[in-house]
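User: quick one, sequence for these tokens?
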């Protein structure tokens, strides 16, 4: 898809998404189809990060006390514009797991308090809640989410409402906090964040939303969603360097939200405490503005990017559906956005070990880096691929993936995959004969 970027004297230079974008603006290997895990940083942003680091090295003291605070506030203000949040509520942090821990370790938990999560929540968040259970005596309630049977936003809302009603009827304490993903990590399902937030608030439950896969991927407005805490990443879909995330905290939660590190500005208020809590490499955070400039000046803005990725995702679904005879886990583009989850042909009954083997096969034999997972589809564990459609991927990539998977003929057992990998070839041939 051709696009234009602004040049001096209003000159317009055509830029194409897909392979041309990858070659011009990224240092990515061919066949990289897993942007949703760690993102990918454009060359101009990497160069800007290096320049910010150089500025620091020239005079670290002047940089720390004069330039750094200004640049970080500018970055947070620009980021707030993109995600629809108030700059005074928005702070950059190193990753979404850090932001989750900030919330969980800031709240004044008491033994017997309850926290609610969904069964499809991010694994690291579940681990953090296990820490709460172990260290603070908090009871963790998990709402089962069989997304393949629920299918619609209304059904999701009804499931959660029914669960909360049963809790209320039990006359036991309601949860102090609820957490859910705006877009689930593995299964890439887009949840009705605003409606869920309103539902939890109607029961007096505070809300933390994990938006790690949402910012940039979706056109979000954090202020309108209304979560008490909204956490997200910048590196996945907003093209920053790795190690750039954010936490947006509603004003009424500022006083009880603190960095994990107790440092110089402890007790000085939300903005001041999160402005600096120890020495680190801040160049990645400073280059956030350059990432947002890349979006606007090179790509034509987030709306153009999202349109390209949505169109590509729908074409990807059509291609793989025809090649494999399967349908996307999430049903329609409304629920998969840029990341359709496509079951592999004859993928029923697989396990995590199978997913790892097939990922290895794709990498070693076809130079394709893709994320494979096993998830239940109508109670059957099924091998799937998470298709991350980005500005540097195109239909040629998904065609290669379709052909590579089809070479296995729907046989993902150890013998077939090991044979394709060329491992223990003689032994495999002997056992197969």
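Assistant:
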């Amino acid at each position: 898809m051709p696009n234009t970027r602004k040049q001096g004297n209003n000159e317009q230079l055509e830029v194409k998404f897909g392979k041309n974008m990858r070659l011009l603006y990224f240092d990515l290997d061919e066949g990289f189809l897993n942007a949703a895990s760690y993102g990918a940083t454009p060359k101009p942003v990497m160069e800007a990060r290096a320049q910010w680091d150089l500025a620091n090295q020239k005079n670290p003291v002047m940089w720390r006390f004069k330039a750094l605070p200004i640049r970080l506030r500018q970055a947070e203000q620009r980021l707030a514009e993109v995600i629809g949040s108030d700059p005074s509520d928005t702070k950059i942090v190193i990753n979404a797991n850090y932001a989750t821990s900030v919330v969980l370790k800031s709240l004044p938990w008491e033994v017997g308090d309850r926290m609610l999560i969904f069964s499809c929540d991010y694994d690291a968040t579940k681990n953090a809640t296990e820490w709460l259970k172990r260290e603070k005596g908090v009871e963790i309630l998990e709402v089962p989410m069989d997304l393949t049977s629920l299918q619609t936003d209304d059904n999701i809302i009804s499931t959660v409402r029914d669960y909360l009603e049963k809790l209320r009827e039990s006359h036991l304490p309601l949860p102090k906090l609820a957490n859910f993903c705006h877009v689930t990590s593995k299964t890439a399902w887009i949840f009705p964040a605003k409606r869920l937030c309103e539902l939890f608030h109607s029961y007096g439950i505070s809300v933390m939303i994990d938006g790690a896969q949402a910012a940039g991927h979706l056109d979000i407005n954090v202020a309108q969603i209304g979560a008490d805490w909204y956490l997200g990443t910048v590196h996945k879909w907003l093209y920053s360097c790795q190690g750039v995330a954010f936490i947006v905290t509603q004003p009424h939660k500022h006083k009880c939200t603190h960095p994990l590190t107790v440092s110089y500005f402890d007790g000085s208020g939300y903005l001041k405490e999160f402005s600096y809590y120890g020495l680190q490499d801040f160049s990645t955070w400073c280059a956030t503005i350059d990432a947002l400039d890349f979006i606007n000046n090179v790509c034509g803005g987030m709306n153009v990017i999202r349109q390209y990725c949505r169109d590509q995702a729908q074409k990807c679904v059509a291609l793989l559906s025809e090649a494999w005879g399967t349908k996307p886990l999430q049903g329609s583009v409304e629920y998969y956005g840029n990341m359709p989850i496509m079951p592999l042909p004859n993928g029923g009954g697989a396990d995590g070990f199978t997913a790892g083997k097939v990922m290895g096969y794709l990498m070693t034999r076809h130079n394709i880096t893709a994320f494979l997972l096993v998830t239940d589809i109508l109670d059957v564990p099924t091998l799937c691929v998470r298709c991350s459609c980005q500005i540097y991927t195109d239909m040629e990539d998904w065609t290669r993936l379709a052909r590579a998977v089809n070479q296995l003929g729907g046989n993902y057992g150890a013998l077939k995959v090991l044979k394709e990998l060329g491992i223990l070839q003689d032994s495999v041939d002997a056992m197969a004969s």
